[in-house]
Design a protein that fits this description.
Number of helices: 2
Strand order of the largest sheet: 2-3-1-4
Shape: globular
Structural class: alpha+beta
Number of domains: 1
CATH topology: Alpha-Beta Plaits
Strand content: 25-35%
Largest sheet: 4 strands, antiparallel
Distance between the termini: 23 Å
Order of helices and strands: EHEEHE
CATH architecture: 2-Layer Sandwich
Oligomer: single chain
CATH class: Alpha Beta
Amino acid sequence: MNKQTITLTGLTCPACKKITEKRIGGLDGVTNVETTIETGLVAIEANREISAQEINNVLKDTPYKTI
């Protein structure tokens, strides 16, 4: 199991949390996603390394971006 943490900008509300967790959670190999709105931290558990590019691609039409 691969665990990684990324930081996103633009997270301001519970809907932000729900959207990011649903979209990142839909990536191939992702088994769990936990988003903390206050810090912008997103903890990802996956069967493989998830790249920042993959995350940016699934969030491309949202205001959330990786730092």
